[in-house]
Amino acid sequence: MQFFKKASIRHKQTAIIMLTTGVALLLVCAAFVVYEILTFRKSMVANLTTHAEIIGNNSSAALDFNDKEVAQETISALRAEPDIVAACLYLKDGTPFVVYIRPGIQEAFEPPPVRWSGHYFGEQHLGLFRPIVQKGETIGAVYLKADLQSLYDRLFRYALIVVTVLILALLVAYFISASLQGVICEPILELVRTTRTVTQNEDYSLRVPRHNDDELGVLIEGFNGMLAQIQARDAALQKAQTELEKRVAERTAELANSLSLLHATLESTADGILVTDCSGTVTNFNEKFLSMWQIPPELARATQEDRLLIDAVLPQLKDPVVFVSRVQELYGRPEEESFDTLELQDGKVFERHSKPQKVGNKHVGRVWSFRNVTERRRAEEELKTMHSQLLNASRQAGMAEVATNVLHNVGNVLNSVNVSSAIISNNIRSSKLPNLERMLTLLQEHADDLPGFFANAKGKQVLPFLTALTQHLANEKEKLLLENESLRKNVEHINEIVAMQQQYARISGVLDVFKVEDLVEDALRMNNDGMERQQVSLLREYSDVPPVLVDKHKVLQILVNLIRNARQAVNSTERPVKSVTIKIGSEGKFVQISVIDNGVGIAAENMVQIFAHGFTTRKGGHGFGLHSSALAAKELGGTLTVQSDGPEKGASFTLSLPVSEQLSVQS
Amino acid sequence: MSYCVGAQTYLLRTVILFCALLIFSISADRGKADEASVPEYQLKSVFLLNFAKYVDWPSEAFNTSEAPIVIGVLGENKFGTNLENTVKNKNVGGRKIIIRAILQDSDWQTCHILFISASEKKRLNEILEQVRASPVLTVSEIDQFTEQGGIIRFLKKEQKIRLEIDLQHARKAKLQISSKLLSVADSVKGKQ
C-alpha cells in the first residue's frame, strides 16, 4: 500500500492494469489447472481402474485355483504401465496372494490392508483397490499403486505454461497499457507538470491545454478557471501586500518614532515613572524612577516583579503600611486614578500619581509617576509665608497710605502752625520790650531826681516814647492774638485729622453696614488736600443706593487708592481741564462706585496685567496698589474692574460691592 | 582412498545380500507352511466349486434359471465334510451348489460336475461313456483320465495341485470352459 501512496498515476495505472490482468489470468489458469488436475486424476483413477479390472479378471482363475505362478504372470503384465509401481492380489480372506514391484523400484513395498474397492491419493502415490469378481462372487481384490510423478510432471508443465503465459500476457498488457494510458495519463501529467511549474515559478498565467471532453477535460477547465481566479487574487493580494508593507513600514517608523519619543519622554521627564500590568508585573520604568528610589538598575532589570521593587522602596518610607495598602487597593480597582503624597525617612516628599493604562476600553495596567516635590513644598511654604507677609505689607501699605494722607494733611496744617508760630516768634522777638527796659533803666538811673529828669530834655521825650510804645504793644498784642487764634484753629484741624485716622485704624477687619456716600466722602476727605492743591475739579454723581456690609477700612483703602490714582492720572496730562468724577450707582445686588478720570488712560496691552502684583506705570510706584485693592475687593465679596479707551483717553475703575440685607445704618 | 571405497562397497553388498537371504528364507518358510496347512481334499473341494464359475453349462442342463448346480461324487468320498463345508451357503451365478453322493448310475447325468473317485478307475470307460453326451463336467484324479474321455484331471506337480483340461471332450459335452480356467491349467488338450 505504501507504493500506492507514493507512486505516480502512470505507475499506479500500470500496476492496476497489470495486477488486474495478472489476477484474472492467474484465476483462469488456476481454474484450468485445477480442472486439468482433477480431470487427470479422474482419468488416472479410471485408467488404473481399467488395469485393475483387467488384472483382476485375468487373475481370477489363478486366485480361485491358487496358482501363484499364473497370478504372478498376470500381474507382471503391468510392466507395460510405467506409472504403476506396485500391485498386489489379495485372496478372498484378505491375505496378499501375489505382489508385484516394478523392476527398478528400490523402495520396499508392503501391501496395505485389504479394501474391496476405492482409491486414495497419497503424497506420491495413488492407491486403488478393485474387487475380483467371478460369477458374482468376490473372490479377492487387486491393489494397484501408481506413481503420481506424471501428475506432478504435468503440474509442473502446467505451472511452466501458466508462468509463461502470465509473463507474456503481462508483457503484452504492459505494452498495451503503456501505449494506451497516454490517453488518460498524458492530460494528468500535463496538469501535474503545469501545477509544478505554477508552484515553483508562482506563475499563475500558465494554462493547461484541453484536448478532450471527458472528466479530465472538465478537470483541466476547472483547474484553468482556478488558476485565473488565483492569478486575479494574487494580483489583488500583491497589491494589498505592497500597500500593507508600505503601511507597515510607515507604522513601524511611526512606532519606532513614538517608541523613541516615549523613551525620550520617559527619560526626559522630571518624574520617576513605573508601568505595571494588572497583575503587578513591571512593564516599563525610567532611569529617574530608579534614581529617585535608589533602586540599583541591575535589580530592576533582573526582575519583573513589583514585589521586589516595593521591598526596595518600603524602607525609605515614613509610613510603609499605608503605601502598601494603597497599592493593593489600587490593583483591586484598575479604573481608579490616584494621587498621594509620600513622605520619606530622609525628609523628601514625593507625589505619587497613578493612572490606569488603557488599550481601547480595557485596563491593561497602571502608570505610576513619582515626583520629587521636596523643593516645591519648601518653595510653597516660603511662598505662603511670603504671601502672608506681602498681604500684611499690603495692608500696612494701605494703612501707610492713609497715614501718609493723614500726615500730609497734618503736615499742611503744621505749616500754617509753623508760620503762625514763626510770626509769633518774630513778633515777640521784634517786640519793643527792650525799648521799655531801656526806658525803665533810664528811669531807675534818674530815680533820685525824677522831676529833674523829666524836666530834662531827655525826660521830656519819655511820654511820647511811652505813648508810641503802648501803641506798638497794643498792635503786637492784636497781631499775636490773631496768630494764636490761627494756631489754635490749625491745631484743632490736626486733632480732627488724627481723630479720623484713629477712627479708621481702630475698626479695621470688622464688617459693618455703611452708607456708600459716607465712605466715598471720607475717602475724598483723605485726598482733599491734593485735589485742591492740584486744581482738579471733582464731580459727584451720586444715586440713592442701599447700604453695604463691608470692612470699612478695606473699602476706604481701595477708594483712597483709586482716588489717588485718578488724581495722579489727571495730573500727568497737559489737559487744561482736569476732572475726576465719582459715580455711585447700583446694579442688581451690587452697589457700584466708579472713579472716572480723564487722565493718561491705560494702554490695551496693560489692561490685562494692571491688577497683577508688582505692576506699575508710575515712576517710584511699588506696584501693589491696584493688586492689593483687587484682592481686597475680592475679600469683600465684590470686584474691581477697569475700563479705558486707551492712552490719553482716561480710565474708569469700578468697585462693585454686595448690597447689605441689613437696613440699620451706622453713621 | 580407493581402498576405503572398495571396502565400504563390499560391506554394503554383504549387508544387502544378507538381508535378501533373510527375507527370502522367511517368505519361503511361509509358502511351505501355507501349502502344508491346507489339506489336499479341502483344496480340491474348493477347486470343484470354483469350476462352476469358469464353466458355462448349456441352458438345457438346468430345469429352471434358479436350479442348483449339482456336484456329484462318484465312488470313494475322500473329501469327507470338506466339500459340504466349502459349498455351504455358496452360489454361483445365482445358483445354489448341491453336493450329491452318486449311488446309482442313473444319477450321473443329473450332475453338473461329476467327480469320479480313483476307486472307480476300473469302470471309468463305462462311466465316461454314460455321460459323454450329457453336459456334465467330469473331474478325476485318475491317470489317463482325459485320454479316456474325461474333461478335467487333477494332477500333482511339485506339491501343487494342477489341472489338465481336454477341450474336445468339453465341447462334446456342450460345456464352455472359460479361458481363464485354461490359463491356470497345466496342460490343455483338444484345442482346435
Summarize the structure.
Chain A has 667 residues and is α+β, with helices and mostly antiparallel strands. Chain A has helices at 2-6, 9-64, 68-76, 149-180, 182-201, 215-268, 287-293, 297-302, 306-313, 320-332, 374-429, 433-445, 450-455, 457-506, 516-533, 552-571, 604-607, 625-635; strands at 84-91, 96-101, 118-121, 125-134, 137-147, 272-277, 282-285, 338-343, 349-359, 362-372, 511-514, 537-542, 548-551, 579-587, 590-597, 639-644, 651-658. Chain B has helices at 2-37, 40-54, 82-87, 124-131, 167-172, 179-184, and strands at residues 55-56, 69-74, 91-92, 95-102, 113-116, 137-140, 152-157, 160-166, 176-177, 187-189.
Describe the structure.
The complex is a heterodimer of chains A (667) and B (192). Chain A is an alpha+beta fold and 667 residues long. Chain A is built from 18 helices and 17 strands. With 192 residues, chain B is α/β, with parallel strands linked by helices. Chain B is 40% helix and 23% strand. Chain B contains 6 helices and 10 strands, in the order ααββαβββαβββαβαβ. The longest helix of chain B is centred in the N-terminal third of the chain and has 36 residues, at 2-37. The A-B interface holds A 57-58, 60-62, 64-67, 70, 74, 134-137, 139 and B 43, 46-47, 50, 52-54, 90-94, 160-161, 163, 178, 180-181, 183-184.
